[in-house]
Amino acid sequence: ALRHPRRRNDCRTRVVSPTDVLKTYEKALAAACVETQTSQLADAVREREELRAQLQSTLQRFEEKAGSYGASLQEAVAECQALRDELHQAQCRNVALEAELETAHRGKEAAERAYDNVCKHGLHADAQLADGPPSDDTRGPDSARRRRAEAARQQELNTAQW
């Protein structure tokens, strides 16, 4: 049997029951577990605080980078929009220039037709003059000159419109 240490005034030895021993060991074990768990909990709390600080730092760096990337992204979007506007203006100018080119092409064709008419009528009038004097006033040399002058004016007008 286990003996309990003597008490001051107790001269006899006391016998301790196994149940008391178990209760004492359970209490000691519980206290040791609580102390161990307390130290483990304290370590876990310290580790959690360190991780929280690291997370805060990482989050702050991320927010700074996101802010700078956000600003860069906004600048890129603005530049893209400006380029899109510039492209639209260029397309509008291109359509206008194509219309002008088509008008000029039609003017050129009209001028060529007028020139061909002048050449044809001028040669026809010269051929008639070579055959003899005109029978009426509309086929005379003055009339041919007038037609040539009118055709030249028409050609100048077409060229100016072109």
Walk me through the structure.
With 162 residues, this protein is mainly alpha-helical. The chain has one domain. Helices cover 83% and strands 2% of the residues. It has helices spanning 18-131, 141-161; strands spanning 3-4, 14-15. The chain has a two-stranded antiparallel sheet with strand order 1-2. Helix 1 runs antiparallel to helix 2 (141-161).
N-to-C SSE series? EEHH
Across the major sheet, the strand order is 1-2
Overall 3D form: rod-shaped
So how many helices?
2
Helical residue percent band: over 70%
The CA-CA distance between the termini, in Å, is 130 Å
Most strands sheet = 2 strands, antiparallel
Q: Give the radius of gyration.
A: 57 Å
What is the tally of beta strands? Answer: 2
Task: Return residue spans where pLDDT drops below 50 for at least 5 consecutive residues.
Answer: none
Topology, please?
Layout: E1 3-4, E2 14-15, H1 18-131, H2 141-161
Antiparallel strand pairs: 1-2
Keywords: Coiled coil
Biased composition (Basic and acidic residues): 136-153
Region (Disordered): 125-162
In brief, what are we looking at here?
The chain is mainly alpha-helical and 162 residues long. It contains 2 helices and 2 strands; from the N terminus they run E-E-H-H. The chain is rod-shaped.
Q: Which short descriptors sum up this protein?
A:
162 residues, mainly alpha, two-stranded antiparallel sheet, rod-shaped, coiled coil
